[in-house]
Task: inverse folding
C-alpha cells in the first residue's frame, strides 16, 4: 500500500509529506520544511517508528518554506534532492528569501539540486510510481506529483482548496499558472484527492465546481 503522512511545519504552516510503500518500507520526503529541532525530531521519529528507508527528497518548488529542511534530510539520511532545474535560482537565494520575511540568515542555507526533474518523469516509491507534472506559474519550476494507485495529487503551491498559488514572487505568472492548472491538473480524474502545500485537502472535482479562479 502507498501511504502519505502529512506534517505542518514552520511559521508558514507548510505541509510536508512522507510518501512510503508500506511493504518495502521505502519512502521519499516531499517539501521537508522543518525549521527547528522540534520539527526535525518529529520528522525523524516518524521515519524511525515506521522503520522507513528514505531514498530521496523531492521538492515541488524551492521557495524557502518548502525546503528549510532539505539540507538536514540530505545530510542525515544520505539522500539526494530532486527538483525542477527552473527553480535552481531560488535554491541559491534562500538567504535573500528569508530576509524578506524577517527570518535570520543563520536559520537557512542554500539548496542545490542533485537530481533535475522534468515533466513526464516518474519517481519510484518502492513498487509505486509518482508522475511528475510541470506546473509553472507560482514559480518557474513548480511541479506536482500524481499517484494513480493512491488516487492523490501533491500540488505544491499551484492549486489550493478554492484558490491558487500566489504569482507575485520572482518568476511567477498568473497566466502561466492558470494554463498549468487547466492543462495538467484539471485533466486528472475528478475523484483525485488534492494535497496542497498549505491548508485543507480537496479534490479535482470540487475545484472544477467551486474554485473561483477556474473558468
Result:
Amino acid at each position: 500500500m502507498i501511504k502519505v503522512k502529512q506534517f505542518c511545519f514552520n511559521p508558514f504552516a507548510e505541509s510536508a509529506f512522507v510518501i512510503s510503500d508500506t511493504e518495502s518500507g521505502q519512502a521519499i520526503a516531499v517539501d521537508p520544511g522543518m525549521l527547528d529541532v522540534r520539527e526535525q525530531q518529529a520528522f525523524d521519529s516518524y521515519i524511525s517508528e515506521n522503520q522507513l528507508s528514505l531514498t530521496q527528497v523531492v521538492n515541488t518548488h524551492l521557495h524557502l518554506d518548502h525546503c528549510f529542511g532539505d539540507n538536514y534530510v540530505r545530510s542525515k539520511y544520505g539522500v539526494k534532492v530532486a527538483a525542477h532545474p527552473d527553480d535552481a535560482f531560488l535554491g541559491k537565494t534562500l538567504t535573500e528569501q528569508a530576509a524578506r520575511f524577517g527570518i535570520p540568515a543563520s536559520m537557512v542555507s542554500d539548496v542545490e539540486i542533485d537530481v533535475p526533474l522534468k515533466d513526464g518523469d516518474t519517481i519510484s516509491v518502492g513498487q509505486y510510481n509518482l508522475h511528475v507534472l510541470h506546473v509553472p506559474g507560482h514559480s518557474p519550476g513548480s511541479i506536482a506529483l500524481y499517484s494513480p494507485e493512491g488516487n492523490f495529487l501533491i500540488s505544491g503551491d499551484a492549486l489550493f482548496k478554492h484558490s491558487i498559488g500566489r504569482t507575485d514572487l520572482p518568476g511567477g505568472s498568473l497566466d502561466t499558472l492558470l494554463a498549468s492548472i487547466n492543462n495538467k491538473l484539471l485533466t486528472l480524474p475528478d475523484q483525485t484527492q488534492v494535497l496542497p502545500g498549505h491548508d485543507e485537502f480537496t479534490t479535482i472535482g470540487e475545484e472544477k465546481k467551486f474554485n473561483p479562479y477556474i473558468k
The chain has seven helices and 14 strands. The chain has a mean pLDDT of 96. Residues 37-49 form the longest helix (13 residues). The two ends are 36 Å apart (CA to CA).
